[in-house]
Amino acid sequence: CRCSCSCVWSDSSEGNISPDSLRKFNNLGKFTYQEKLGLAGAMVDVSKWPLLSVLSAQEQAAVRQVYIFGTSANEAIYITHANEVFAFGLNCSGCLGTGDSVSTIVPKKLDFLQGKKVVSLSYGSGPHVLLATEDGQLFAWGHNVYSQLGNNTTSAGLSPALITNNLQSKKVTEVACGSHHSLALTQDGEVFAWGYNNCGQVGSGSTTNQPYPRKVTGCLQGKAAVGITCGQTSSLALIDNGEVYGWGYNGNGQLGIGNNGNQLCPCRLATLQGVCIQQVVAGYAHCLALTDEGLLYAWGANTYGQLGTRNKSNHLSPVQIMVDKERVVEVAACHSTHTSAAKTQSGKVFMWGQCRGQSMVLPHLTHFTATDDVFACFATPSVMWRLLSVEHDDFMTASEALRKEFDSPETSDLKFSVDGKCIHVHKAVLKISRCEHFRSMFRSQWSEGQQDVIEIGQFSYPVYRSFLQFLYTDTVELPPEDAIGLLDLATSYCENQLKRLCQQIIKRGITVDNAFTLLSAAIRYDAEDLEEFCFRFCVNHLTQVTQTTAFWQVDGGMLKEFISRASRCGAFKN
Questions:
Q1: pTM for this one?
Q2: What is the biggest distance separating any 2 CA atoms in the chain, rounded to whole angstroms?
Q3: Quick one: which of 487, 565, 540, 550 has its CA closest to 517?
Q4: Residue 374 contacts by C-beta under 8 Å, 6 or more apart in sequence?
Q5: pLDDT below 50 — which residues of the chain?
């Protein structure tokens, strides 16, 4: 067992987890940390990853990002708050980058990466490791029999080496590794591939190994990619218009193109025509794709039920799953596992596929709060599916103490009355807050001891409470349908950070039915980024949007402007 619970699994001939086992799992306690809305990266409870227990409390406190990888999940790389990179573990094929192939339980610093801020990290089966930095540099080390390091040799790389072939003027923003091939995505939306190419996974049109980065063209020519992912011997690219292209091995249908023939060049997933994909991930031989409406599709191998289709039959084309669940906001898979996970809008986490060696053929609700914990406790091997940011919860920080006292009648000295309900706050907090509205109010109108209750009539109770809570916590806990009112408040009070958080909430909650209403609000409140997002959503779902009540209730001027703008974008071309 890889987690701190006493799990008992069924030995039934069906290979599925028994109801008793599921009950035992469901009785696990909830974790103490919460994901922070609006912050980049995932927050992880390090206690779920046994390998990290070798770090001292002092070393754990210094960790900012961490990545556990390897064929047995026995290697780890972590980055400190000072941007120092350390590695420890088994060190197969020199994958730790320490300059030798000697295993170490004591973390060793990778001096070559000193001061580099890491933005993307991935590993292969050798393993080999790719790392992209904030300034767009690409580093590689580890196994290299198939030139998967991209340095034009087949010699193992025992230390991180800068990879520049064909990338001298490029800024790499994301990396992805298959078993023995590599992908890199540039800031310009170009995809480069190299390494083992026996099934066409490099996308060069042949099966000849590629010793250095080569731009993937064909159907990707002229298109801007925004995401990349790899299965063991397949590759996928997500385009900015929501299309997905795949190439490489397809024996289990993992390219989703309706057949099981390998593809030597990128091929579009035609079955996904009409939907706009915003995230795609690949497992060992299966894939998951999430649309901008929160719909989830799966395809490829299904030996362990990793597609979540209630059976173990492979699917050569995408099929929609979790149709009876609420909107999905994140999906997770890793090329070295047969495990799948998803998170819904309300924070529920589901898992399915190979879970601790057993098969789950349907998404099962867990008590986890992050998809990452599914891989820590149930994947084989228990590797991380993405680079994680670490939150420490062994003591209460000043911000956590402030969060705890929000709306506390016991300690407050000021109340806001909204819709007949009171919100309890502290004058001192509002006086020193970054909100110019309150700072000006206290300077010009108030002195200590005056007015303990303020009446608010312009905004609703949920909206104003969320605003005040934001001043205490930097987060917003509000459903998407109420975020428009908060966006109105943020605009009135000139709170730009709050505007950005509202826009994130609205983006996550956009649907065909409310898209035009949200577009109108974005225009009204001068939220340019949100306006562009809502406009693109309306164009991508034009037929459905034009049939909604909101579309025909908008004023004529805006309707005319939308039609004109959509026409300029080619929305009405056959």
A1: 0.74
A2: 80
A3: 550
A4: 332, 339, 341, 349, 351, 355, 366, 368
A5: 1-44, 448-449
